[in-house]
């Protein structure tokens, strides 16, 4: 039972760390209202309250062999 408590504690701690780092990244991105930037394959804009709004396109991920090769 103690092992399950420890695993749960570690899981919750990791979630908090990820949430904190994600929030810090978003805060750094929106220091000035009106700034637009690209995040992954989406366009984001910072509003007057400092919140970030982004398009919600599905970004295509490429595997190393998925890239089209150029034949010149």
Automatic annotation (TrEMBL):
Subcellular location: Secreted
Pfam families with a match to the protein in the record: Pacifastin_I
Pacifastin domain mapped to chain residues: 30-64
Keyword vocabulary terms for this entry: Disulfide bond, Protease inhibitor, Secreted, Serine protease inhibitor, Signal
A GO molecular-function descriptor: serine-type endopeptidase inhibitor activity
GO CC term, one of those recorded: extracellular region
Signal peptide: 1-22
Record field: transmembrane: none
Domain of life where this protein originates: Eukaryota
Similarity-based family: Belongs to the protease inhibitor I19 family.
Name of protein: Pacifastin domain-containing protein
Taxonomic lineage from the root: Eukaryota, Metazoa, Ecdysozoa, Arthropoda, Hexapoda
């Amino acid at each position: 039972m103690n092992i399950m408590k420890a695993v749960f504690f570690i899981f919750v701690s990791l979630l908090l760390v990820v949430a904190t780092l994600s929030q810090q990244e978003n805060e750094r991105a929106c220091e000035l209202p009106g700034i637009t930037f690209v995040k992954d394959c989406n366009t984001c804009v910072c509003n007057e309250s400092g919140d970030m709004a982004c398009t919600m396109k599905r970004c295509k991920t490429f595997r190393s062999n998925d890239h089209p090769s150029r034949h010149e």
